[in-house]
Amino acid sequence: MQEHFHFTTDPAKLQKQYAAIFCFVSAQLSLIQMYLHRRNRHLVKQEDEVVMAVHLLGKLLGFSSERAWHRFVTGNLFTNGSFLERSRYNRRCRALGFAIKWIRHELAKRGQHHAYAVVDSLPLPLCHPARMQRVKRFRGITDMGYCASKKQWYYGFKLHLQVTNQGLAMGYVVTEASCHDVKAAETVMTQIPHPYNFGCKLSLYFRTKKTLFCTFLRNIPLPLSERMC
């Protein structure tokens, strides 16, 4: 549904989003230019800043297909044919993976100035519940867990997140489905510490109350809801 002829976002808004990402990427890449040197860099068709800004914009808009996103870019952002060929673009994105991780970390550090952060988890099921006992994919890496909000078991992983009140993800960790929030809470919160963390009492205080309170300035739990009990 996200082919360029179905996409309904205002082109002017899209250009503003791209410009904002490009400015931020350019400012951050200037700090790690010494790590980006490679042979024949002066012959590239597009600068690293452009490639990374386009890649991040695609993730922001929710494109999961590299082919569909490249077709959208060449049909809407770079209509004069100046953009990279699809396979070359994908190789450049993979080569710049470490720089993208650096930028994500620098962006996440801005969340320390936000009002508060929320620590919670969500299931990442890999198959329908009816196939849990037969599935072989990732066997030995993950297992079955219980989703309290849906009141059902699932097979897959669990994503633990620390998100600020403005929607910025500061820390995350992916574990097996059976991993309790208590075990992952400290790992998530120590990646980029925030002084005020909201979350379930079970994950913020149970067993690790003293450790977390000594590590961070203050942790304010939300009241327990029925699904957290």
Task: List its salient traits.
229 residues, alpha/beta, 2 domains, six-stranded mixed β-sheet, 6 strands, globular, disordered N terminus, disordered C terminus, Tnp_DDE_dom, Transposase
Strand content: 15-25%
Distance between the termini: 39 Å
Question: Helix content range of the residues, please?
Answer: 25-40%
Low-confidence stretches: 1-5, 214-229
Biggest sheet architecture: 6 strands, mixed
User: Which series of helices and strands comes N to C?
Assistant: HHHHHEEEEHEHHE
Oligomer: single chain
Rg measurement, Å: 21 Å
Overall pLDDT level: 79
Helix tally equals 8
Count the beta strands.
Answer: 6
Structural class: alpha/beta
Q: What overall form do the CA principal axes indicate?
A: globular
How many independent structural domains?
2
Describe the protein in words:
The protein is of the alpha/beta class. The chain has 2 domains: 11-107, no CATH class; 114-228, no CATH class. It is 39% helix and 18% strand. The chain contains 8 helices and 6 strands; from the N terminus they run H-H-H-H-H-E-E-E-E-H-E-H-H-E. Strands 1, 2, 3, 4, 5 and 6 form a 6-stranded mixed beta sheet that branches. Strand 3 and strand 4 (169-176) form a beta hairpin. The longest helix has 19 residues, at 11-29. The radius of gyration is 21 Å and the shape is globular. Mean pLDDT is 79; it is low at 1-5 and 214-229.
